[in-house]
Amino acid sequence: MKLLFSALLLAQVCCFSGTVRATSNDHVATSPQAVLTPLEAQEGRFRLRYAATGDADHVTVRILDAQGQVIRRDQTRNISFARVYNFSEMPYGSYTVQVTTPTGTQEFPVAHQAPTLAQPRVALKALSDKRYQVTVNGTSSAPFVVRIVDQNQQLISIDVTDKKSSFSRVYDLSKLANTNVVFEVGAGYKLLANVNAADVPMLAVEADTE
C-alpha cells in the first residue's frame, strides 16, 4: 500500500502496555521509557523519544487510522532513539501509533486537528461619490466573496476574489439610481457579514472655495 504521507518514521518503545494521548496543544505525554510530544510550531508532527533499560527487542510499529485500519507497519531493533511521526500531509482525524514488543503493546493515540482560525472581521466605509470601501481583516481557508444585492435580494454585482487573507477594495455605485443596497461578504459559501450601505454615512465633500 502506497504511503499516504511522507517522512513518517518508524519508532520503538519499551515492553510496557499503556495508553497516552497527544495533540498539537497538549503537554508532554510520558510512559516509563517513552516520551511523546508535539513539535512546537510544526503542525501535525510528533516526536517519540525512547531509552531502553536492557537489550534491544524486536519491535513492530503500526500506524492505524480512526477505523482501525493499518496504514503503515515497520519493524526494527534498537536500544534508544528519537524519531518523528509526520501527520501533516494526512487528513485531519484520529490516529494511533501502536508499538508491539514480545511482552506487550503500547498505543499512542494522536489527534491531528485543524488549527482554529479566528473569524475574519468585515468593515464597510462610505467614501465620496457613492463609493464604498470593503475591508476584511483575517484569514480564511476559502477565497473571500463580495456580493452586492438590493433590498429584494436581487444580485447587483459579485466579486469573487482570489484573496484568503486581509484585503481592501473600493466599489463604485455611482451608476446606481438607488444605493440602498446590502454588501454581503463571505468566505466561500460561508457568510461573514452583511452591511446595509444606507446605514453607513457618506463622507462629506468639502466645497471648492476658489
Task: Kindly describe this structure.
This protein has 210 residues and is mainly beta. The chain contains no helices and 17 strands. The chain has 2 domains: 18-112, Immunoglobulin-like, CATH 2.60.40.3080; 121-199, Immunoglobulins (Immunoglobulin-like). Helices cover 0% and strands 49% of the residues. A hairpin with a 2-residue loop joins β16 and β17. It is rod-shaped. The model is unreliable at 1-32 and 204-210 (pLDDT under 50).
What are the key terms here?
mainly beta, 4-stranded antiparallel β-sheet, disordered N terminus, Immunoglobulin-like, 210 residues, 2 domains, 17 strands
User: What percent of the residues sit in helical stretches (DSSP H or I)?
Assistant: under 10%
The oligomeric state of the chains shown is single chain
- CATH C-level class of the largest domain is Mainly Beta
What about the largest sheet? 6 strands, mixed
What is the helix/strand order? EEEEEEEEEEEEEEEEE
Q: How many domains make up the coordinates?
A: 2
SS elements, strand count: 17
Q: Per CATH, which architecture of the largest domain?
A: Sandwich
Structural class: mainly beta
Q: Ranges with pLDDT <50 over ≥5 residues?
A: 1-32, 204-210
Instruction: Note the overall shape.
Output: rod-shaped
**CATH level 3 topology of the largest domain:** Immunoglobulin-like
Averaged pLDDT, please?
A: 74
Quickly count the helices. 0
Q: Give Rg in angstroms.
A: 28 Å
Q: State the end-to-end CA separation.
A: 80 Å
User: What share of the residues does DSSP label as strand, in percent?
Assistant: over 45%
